[in-house]
Amino acid sequence: MNKLYIGNVSAEASEEDLESIFKQWKIPHSGPFLVKTGYAFVDCPDEKAAMRAIDVLSGKVELHGKVLEVEHSVPKRQRSCKLQIRNIPPHMQWEVLDGMLAQYGAVESCEQVNTDTETAVVNVRYAARDHARLAMEKLNGSMMENYALKVSYIPDETAAPEGPPSGGRRGFNARGPPRPGSPGLGARPKVQSDIPLRVLVPTQFVGAIIGKEGATIRNITKQTHSKIDIHRKENAGAAEKPITIHSTPDGCSNACRTIMDIMQKEAVDTKFTEEIPLKILAHNNFVGRLIGKEGRNLKKIEQDTGTKITISPLQDLTLYNPERTITIKGSIEACSRAEEEVMKKIRESYDSDMAAMNLQSNLIPGLNLNALGLFPSGAPGMGPSMANVSPPGAHGGCSYGGQPESETVHLFIPALAVGAIIGKQGQHIKQLSHFAGASIKIAPAEGMDAKQRMVIIVGPPEAQFKAQCRIFGKLKEENFFGPKEEVKLEAHIKVPSFAAGRVIGKGGKTVNELQNLTCAEVVVPRDQTPDENDQVIVKISGHFFACQLAQRKIQEILAQVRRQQHQQQQQPKSPSGGQPPTPRRK
């Protein structure tokens, strides 16, 4: 991955000019410059030199009046599922990045690349070529917090050449089954089938775990058949750093045991006398089931393994850090056995929740579950690992090009809750907006004594789902509803006045069916005057899932209306210029 493509090269540029630029910026190269009309190629001795050339030169250095573009040179046959994304805002949370990448398809892996630049760089592998191509088109040049993202393909050595469209099942080329090492097959372990193991390690041991020039960590990954991400740039200055291990359950446990051995040896060498417990990070969704009724599950693991286990309090959680720390104390052997038992419980909970979520997807059409981030895939440092299949019949809210259309929802919250949603200096609403990928604004109060305030949410279905889910959750968390009281809110969506009848149905049949199906109250107020866009309001009241299901069903009805309109517009007019003839009834 050390060959570079240099684009936007002036016709006057020579090999010596390029040589001079590389020398000026102290970038080594291992071969001559191959200069063509408008572009050039050069080899770098290693990936570090190639990354430096991209970071320092691309879009920044001029040659004969033209700004050079520098990126990895990738043969067409290797432009498959792997992308490199550069110039990512340095303080961007992994959760936000994961959510952004998942909008374009299933992400198999996302690894941070160490560079000397202030901004971050990640290598991303998508599950399919089309997903990578779409992400490339949509993200390259897009602005994120005043940073323009730069996206390019990187060589995918496992890429099979694109075969003819017919002749064989998907995933098999003309020569038979894919070679070992192809995505999802062969020697490389499946990483998506199991939830990753996340551990916290003291920052002073990170260097020993990585080893000289990364030799130790490479050795661990090779021996345990795992992929290990050390999130060194997260929580700058923190006493501990998270490590994410992707592998089979055995692979995760073996890698964890090796890391504990390395830390123990480093502690002896550096005369570090404090106990080094094993700390596992787990999403709060699973912790209750790990503890068990009256703490029985946790007590059994402690008794069976001879360890002492404590779990960080709920108060430490935030909306954007849903993980709790499970601290295990004991010998390395005992901690290793306890890790196996703890992760076994967590994986069982994860599988159970995923099955329930996939069942839910059939009830809520039009949603891409990859992008929701309701399960641990949204936790920092984890790639989305939710179900990769789109729910059947997911047509609601989609334009004819296949991309989700933006929707506007007005959600009404208690006036006293506005401060909690906005947060200190507007931080919470900004984070929420980034996390969900939606525009979120609070409308001005209607009068001094207004008991409710309107939150205006603009974004595609997945963004609506995430934003509304977090708002419902925040109101519960901040005790605006009682401990045994379900959060119920009212949402308004606008529909074209000519489509309101379709939402109501003949004699109110459709709206009644909607209410029975969703458990939400759905009202289309009579005698409304359409607004300047000829739209009227539909009011939806209920708990979160009821509101979501009703919104999706109504959007599905509107999509059907739009499709029918589109088909009518496509019908040819009769030669006389009048209406097309009415089809004869059979």
Tally of individual domains = 4
Q: At the first level of CATH, what is the class of the largest domain?
A: Alpha Beta
Describe the strand arrangement of the main beta sheet, using strand numbers. Answer: 14-15-13-16-18-17
Number of strands: 24
Structural class: alpha+beta
CATH fold node name of the largest domain? TATA-Binding Protein
Q: Brief description of this entry?
A:
This protein has 586 residues and is an alpha+beta fold. Helices cover 34% and strands 21% of the residues. Residues 160-193, 359-363, 369-402 and 580-586 have low confidence and may be disordered.
Walk me through what this model shows.
This protein has 586 residues and is α+β, with helices and mostly antiparallel strands. The chain folds into four domains: 71 residues, Alpha-Beta Plaits, CATH 3.30.70.330; 72 residues, Alpha-Beta Plaits (2-Layer Sandwich); 157 residues, TATA-Binding Protein (2-Layer Sandwich); 161 residues, 2-Layer Sandwich (TATA-Binding Protein). Helices cover 34% and strands 21% of the residues. The protein contains 16 helices and 24 strands. A six-stranded antiparallel beta sheet has the order 14-15-13-16-18-17. Strands 20-21-19-22-24-23 form a six-stranded antiparallel beta sheet. Strands 2-3-1-6 form a four-stranded antiparallel beta sheet, covered by helices on one side. A hairpin with a 2-residue loop joins strand 4 and strand 5. Helix 7 packs antiparallel against helix 10. The protein is globular and about 75 Å long. The chain starts with a strand and ends in a 16-residue tail after the last helix. The C terminus is likely disordered.
